[in-house]
Structure formats: C-alpha cells, structure tokens
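ok, trying the design again with the full structure, not the truncated one.
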C-alpha cells in the first residue's frame, strides 16, 4: 500500500498537479483504502499548519521581498564587485558572493534565483560570458539561499523534527561558505579555460564606499540571525524583526517603497506562503498515514539492513535524498521524507542538526536537477533558455555541490563546530 501511495503521488506530480493537492489526494485515497475515516484529513491538515513557529515563513518571505524591491540589491552587488570583481571571471564571482549576501535576507532559493537572473545574466552576457554559463552560475548559487541562514527549509526541518531552529541556522554558516567557495573555484576554472574577463581592479577607496553604502542593509540579517543566536528572540520574532527593519529601511530611510509597492509585495508573500502551507497541510495528512503504517521504521530497517558500514549507510541516505529531491518540492520532501530517515540517522549517531544540513544540501541539489528543478526552471524561464542548454555548464556546478555535500556528510564539525 505504501508503494502504491508513493507511486500515485509521483504520478500526480508528473502530470503537473500542484504538489499540495497531489499530497492531499494521495493521502485521501490511502486513508479510504485502509479504512481510515476521511474526517481525519481536515483535522490533520489543520494540525499540520497550526504551529506558531510557521509564522516565520511568511515573515521571512515578506522580508526578502521588501529587500528585493529596494536599492539593497544594487548596494550588495556594488560591495561584491569591490570585494571579488578583480579576480579572473570577476562577474561570476560577484554573482556568487551576491547570492551569499542575499541568502541572509530571503531564505528562499527560488526567490533569489528570480531576482538574480534578471540582474546578472544580461550583465554577464554583455561582458562576453556565454549566456548559458551565466544562467548556470545564477541558478546554482541561488541554492545558497536555503543553506545560509535564515533558511525556510531549515525552519520546516526544525518544526518536523523538533530540532532547535537557532542551532540549524548556526549550522548552515560553514557549509554555506564552503558551498560558495566551491562555486567560485568552479567559476575560476571556467574563467581560465574560456578567457572570462576581470570585472574591475581592486581599490580600497571603492571598497570603503561600497561597504558604507551596504552597511545598513547588511545589519538587518545580522540583527535577525544575531538576535536568534543570542537567544533574545524566537524564530518568529526574529522574522518579524527583520520584516519591520526592511520596511523601515525601504520606506523611511531610502524612500524606495510606497503603499502600492508594499501592497503588491504583501500579495506576493500571501501567494508564496499559501503554496508552502498547502504543501505542509497535505504532507501532514500523508505523514500521518505513513506513520500509522510504520513506513518510516520499515524504510529505516530496510536501508539499515543493507549494510552495517557507516560510510555506506551515509551514502545510501544521500542517494535516497538526492533521488527524492529530483521529484519532490523541498518543503514536501522535508515533511514526508525526513521522518522516514530520522530513525536510521539516530541509530547511526548522527546529530539531528548535522542531519538537517545534509538534508538541505541534498534538496538544494534536487532544485537543480530535472524533472522538478524548481530553481533551474526559474532561471530558464527568466532568461528564455532551455534546461538542456544550461545543463552543459550546470552539471559541473552540481558536481561542486556534491563534493561539498560529501565533505559536510563525513565531517560533522562543518555543521556543529560553531554550536
């Protein structure tokens, strides 16, 4: 029955049904076939979303949208150019560093990809970079949005596994820096091979000017994450603090925002939040069915029974997550799949915080790999390119992500060293 339900779920997603509805339909059919009263479905749906900490999701989305609608992105790009534009293939490195900064402000890889693809792909193309290379760099570097705090998938993981969101945010810092470094190394290799240009030579006065201009915007995520890490605010309060700070900066200090713009941003936030909440609600129903059928325990026993070797077990977990990440939205994957693997990870002695980072890295790779490839599709849609065109370059950046995943998987200190 479990495999029938999972097969039905994947089939519904494959024909283009929204993931939230696919989860609900698959769960309802499973409940009907196993004799569970369907009245339990709406109860489980409400229970799944009735958590105060989930308010952090719309607030982080709202904060990211506010900051994307102001001059903040221009200031961040100017700072990134002053920092790394002097390197061979400078604008590609600027793209990656900008994504690292922007990751501190949105928590969503798709949102970062949508903004950055409109800015960087045309700029890089004008400087002589292949358009497909520019799209590949933009798509893969946007993945930093779910690794570097704040991260919406980490919030969902924390809620699903009852793990400290504060610890998860701290744990994402070193892996995020490693992943950004891996992207820059890959970009540099292509720059040397294809003769990509330097963006601008390094100048201390230019760096100072850019830093002063970007100081206030950079302080907003520092305030949010710092307040959370310091224990002064909860995740929801931190998100609210960031949203208020972004609104004050954009409306009062810079006057980039007006009532109409804020209204449109609020509408965008509601639409994005509704998608996530529908997925959470549908996942809650399906998750309850899987728990009743003891599917998580059976999968853990099945994977664990293949081998007792720690390395092989870790590789099996990663392969399983990578495969499912290719078909499931990150939110659905976390809520449905993580409870299946958590018993095995605990048996192996993996810290739940470390495991959370492993999950997010795997799902980040899934956002770049068809058929779902949500981030890559966002960039392709914005640039008018086809996935197969971009994959020629993207596969090498995905390889860099896989290498980073292996380092983090077998080096727990990369996730827990700052705790």
């Amino acid at each position: 029955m479990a495999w029938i339900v999972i097969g039905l779920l994947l089939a519904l997603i494959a024909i283009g049904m929204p993931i939230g509805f696919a989860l609900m339909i698959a769960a309802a059919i499973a409940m009907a076939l196993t004799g569970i009263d369907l009245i339990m479905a709406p109860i489980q749906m409400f229970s799944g979303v009735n958590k105060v900490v989930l308010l952090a999701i719309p607030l982080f989305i709202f904060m990211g949208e506010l900051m994307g609608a102001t001059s903040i992105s221009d200031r961040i790009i100017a700072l990134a150019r002053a920092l790394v534009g002097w390197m061979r293939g400078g604008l590609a490195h600027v793209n990656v560093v900008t994504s690292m900064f922007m990751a501190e402000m949105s928590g969503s890889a798709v949102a970062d990809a949508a903004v950055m693809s409109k800015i960087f792909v045309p700029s890089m193309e004008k400087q002589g970079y292949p358009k497909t290379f520019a799209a590949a760099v933009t798509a893969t570097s946007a993945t930093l949005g779910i690794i570097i705090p704040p991260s919406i998938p980490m919030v969902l993981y924390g809620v699903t596994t009852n793990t400290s969101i504060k610890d998860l945010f701290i744990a994402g810092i070193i892996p995020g820096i490693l992943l950004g470094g891996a992207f820059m190394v890959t970009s540099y290799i292509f720059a040397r091979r294809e003769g990509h240009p330097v963006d601008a030579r390094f100048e201390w006065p230019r760096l100072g000017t850019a830093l002063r201009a970007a100081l206030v915007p950079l302080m907003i995520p520092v305030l949010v994450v710092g307040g959370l890490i310091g224990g002064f605010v909860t995740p929801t309060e931190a998100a609210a603090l960031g949203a208020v700070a972004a609104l004050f900066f954009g409306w009062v200090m810079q006057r980039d925002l007006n009532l109409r713009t804020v209204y449109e941003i609020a509408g965008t936030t509601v639409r994005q939040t509704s998608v996530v909440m529908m997925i959470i609600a549908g996942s809650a129903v399906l998750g309850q069915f899987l728990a009743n059928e003891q599917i998580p325990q059976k999968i853990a026993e099945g994977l664990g029974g293949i081998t007792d070797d720690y390395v092989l077990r870790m590789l099996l977990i990663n392969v399983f997550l990578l495969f499912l990440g290719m078909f499931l939205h990150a939110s659905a994957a976390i809520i449905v799949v993580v409870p299946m693997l958590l018993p095995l990870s605990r048996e192996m002695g993996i810290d739940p915080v470390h495991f959370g980072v492993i999950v997010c890295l795997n799902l980040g790779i899934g956002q770049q790999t068809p058929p779902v490839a949500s981030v890559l599709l966002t960039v392709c849609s914005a640039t008018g390119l086809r996935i197969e065109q971009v994959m020629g370059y993207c596969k090498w950046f995905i390889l860099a992500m896989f290498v980073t995943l292996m380092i983090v998987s077998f080096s727990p200190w990369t996730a827990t060293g700052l705790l």
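Keeping the full-length input from now on. The CA atoms of residues 28 and 38 lie 7 Å apart.
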